[in-house]
Amino acid sequence: MASISGVCSPSSAVRIRRSLPVSTSGHLRRLRPFRSVADLNRSFSSTSSCSSSSAPLPVEKEEDGSVEKDPINLWNRYVDWLYQHKELGLLLDVSRIGFTDKFFDLMEPRLQKALVAMQDLEKGAIANPDEGRMVGHYWLRKSKLAPNSFLRLQIDNTLDAICKFADDVISAKIKPPSSPAGHFTQVLSIGIGGSSLGPQFVAEALAPDNPPLKIRFIDNTDPAGIDHQIAQLGPELASTLVIVISKSGGTPETRNGLLEVQKAFREAGLEFSKQGVAITQENSLLDNTARIEGWLARFPMFDWVGGRTSEMSAVGLLPAALQGIDIKEMLVGASLMDEATRMRVIKDNPAALLALCWYWASDGIGSKDMVVLPYKDSLLLFSRYLQQLVMESLGKEFDLDGNRVNQGLSVYGNKGSTDQHAYIQQLREGVHNFFVTFIEVLRDRPPGHDWELEPGVTCGDYLFGMLQGTRSALYANDRESITVTVQGVTPRSVGALIALYERAVGIYAHLVNINAYHQPGVEAGKKAAGEVLALQKRILTVLNEASCKQPVEPLSLEEIADRCHIPEEIEMIYKIIAHMAANDRALIVEGSCGSPRSIKVYLGECNVDDLLA
Ligand SMILES: O=P(O)(O)OC[C@H]1O[C@](O)(CO)[C@@H](O)[C@@H]1O
């Protein structure tokens, strides 16, 4: 196999372009845009003098076959680039990402600028210009970094209050009023997005087999899903601590979950306020509701912490503490990683290395997806957690200068080796639109429990073999990968992983010049959903009028649209009617949903009060 010596290795100062522009099928291979070094430097210096260097650097590489293959060169590259955090026991291997020395040299000044910007952010600069907010999740794990004493006090007091409350609940000093158990046995967490994904990931990763309180999640406005959670609790609803988490305090899905759970409490004859806890911003709708109704406790969510970076705030720490997870260790892990990711020497900064790799692998424009494959069941939800952290942060239409850039980096994955029996086939041989991040956990199971299921081989050896085999097999087919290795899945390593990716996202956002801390695109969907519900109310009024007539007047979709004065909304009207009919809230007397023009509909029950109102 041809050895390509363009990748960064001690022996590879000069890039040799592979002379295989013609594929075996005889078609010309597409080469990625290549410019001379002078061109690249010109392009860089023309942008680097601006406060925000936005133009993506052209990434010089060939479509296929550009990665180092010689085993000794690869080993040198591995050793040369291996990052180690001794105290955390964390390794980062970027050797299977094929960035070149030249690329590194071009990126370094940009990375340095990004690190300065991250430093400013940590000092309290307005890093979210649209919303005029500071971005302070780094202060949560080291309050003395916060820019003023008021914030420091807020952070420390909240942490103390979380620890005390969790201790009191676990020791039954705080108990449910009418449970035969005499203490809380379950947590039901209601929240969505950043107000749920972190707690779910951490619960799956770290909760002990027999936690003091078990946790369940309602993270959607799916009535059947909510019913399922409540049904699973059964009589234990009486000993369930309900934590409602919403930074804004007004997210509809979370509000609906709360209303559904409150209804279940009423029906079970239980007093919700004695078992309800709110985590939200001061004076939000949720905060005011909890205060007025006298809920058991309220914990603050800070304006300067974004939802997707809130795992180390009350959002993540309270549920974790209630499950007996050592939250101080999580904070230590994150804080140690924060220190490491402030390093100015790029090779010594794992977050900068990740950002560099992402940029190389996805051409700085998200041209390839990031497949996250932890080889450990307990890390199953890491990719789901990262999906929001990365995609809500980086997936932006405009850059900070207002240019349309449609940036992003897609993330998916579950776990190995399970995924080897699902989609790895395509990764190895199919469309080449991804790079992989393997998460390797060295400790297979707690000491003293291992055994050999065949001579010399344990179950964990298989998992290890599967990871190494997949990494090699993918690389042999020019599929690049990063490997993050931790000793075990512990509160410290999980805290460190979260902090590592938070910082990598921040640095990468600077490299591509976007605001990582807002989410304007989500607002559009929320607004449109509100409009659908408003339309449904109008339809109901029209249908109600017709249904109260004697005799009842069934209406066609066109008639409804006319009476609502919105003929252009006929398709949405049809969908609303079909949904209502499927739920027995509208009766279709003629035609069927499969042939929309034939439908005549009315309401089974007319509400005269509505008409008089
Ligand atoms: O915590 P909140 O305000 O309920 O928001 C939940 C989620 O909704 C979003 O605002 C938009 O999806 C996320 O950024 C956030 O994590």
UniProtKB/TrEMBL annotation:
Originating species: Zingiber officinale (Ginger)
Record keywords, A-Z: Gluconeogenesis, Glycolysis, Isomerase
Family note: Belongs to the GPI family.
Cross-referenced PROSITE patterns: 25A_SYNTH_3, P_GLUCOSE_ISOMERASE_2, P_GLUCOSE_ISOMERASE_3
Biased composition (Low complexity): 43-54
Gene Ontology CC terms, in alphabetical order: cytosol
Spans annotated as Disordered: 43-64
Taxonomy of the source species: Eukaryota, Viridiplantae, Streptophyta, Embryophyta, Tracheophyta
Involved pathway(s): Carbohydrate degradation; glycolysis; D-glyceraldehyde 3-phosphate and glycerone phosphate from D-glucose: step 2/4
EC numbers: 5.3.1.9
Superkingdom of origin: Eukaryota
InterPro entries attached to this UniProt entry: G6P_Isomerase (IPR001672), Phosphoglucose_isomerase_CS (IPR018189), SIS_PGI_1 (IPR035476), SIS_PGI_2 (IPR035482)
Catalyzed reactions: alpha-D-glucose 6-phosphate = beta-D-fructose 6-phosphate
Gene Ontology MF term list: glucose-6-phosphate isomerase activity; monosaccharide binding
Name assigned to this protein: glucose-6-phosphate isomerase
One record GO biological process: glycolytic process
